């Protein structure tokens, strides 16, 4: 729907959500560049959400997001907290 509104480019361009981008950078079983080029070469699939091209691939943890989480002080507090009893058992 938006494609006709975009200018013509010599470089392939796609629009994606931040979650699709975060998902894409963690793929470990295939070169991401190859996945993107295959998607761009397919006239029909290139119109689908990027998420479709990322399905079925192995992923690692996102080191950037993990490092960001580890930088917050509440991370240590959350790791030290141990519930005294299962939720819903106290009356």
Number of helices: 5
Number of strands: 0
- Following the backbone from N to C, one meets helices and strands in this order, namely HHHHH
Gyration radius, in Å: 20 Å
Poorly predicted runs are: none
The amount of helix comes to 40-55%
What number is the mean pLDDT?
83
Largest sheet descriptor = none
Strand content: under 5%
Q: Report the principal-axis shape.
A: elongated
Structural class: mainly alpha
Oligomer: single chain
What this model shows, in words?
It is built from five helices and no strands. The protein is mainly alpha-helical. It is elongated, with a radius of gyration of 20 Å. The termini are far apart.
Keywords for this structure?
91 residues, elongated
Question: Which helices and strands, and how do they pair?
Answer:
Elements lengths: L17 H7 L7 H10 L8 H5 L8 H8 L3 H7 L11
Task: Provide a brief overview of the structure.
By secondary structure, the chain is mostly helical. The protein is built from 5 helices and no strands.
């Amino acid at each position: 729907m938006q494609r006709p509104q975009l200018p013509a480019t010599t470089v392939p361009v796609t629009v994606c959500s931040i979650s699709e981008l975060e998902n894409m950078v963690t793929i470990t079983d295939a070169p991401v560049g190859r996945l993107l080029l295959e998607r761009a070469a397919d006239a029909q699939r290139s119109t689908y959400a990027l998420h479709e091209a990322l399905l079925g691939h192995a992923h690692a943890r996102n080191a950037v997001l993990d490092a960001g989480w580890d930088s917050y002080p509440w991370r240590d507090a959350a790791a030290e907290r141990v519930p005294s009893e299962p939720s819903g058992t106290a009356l």
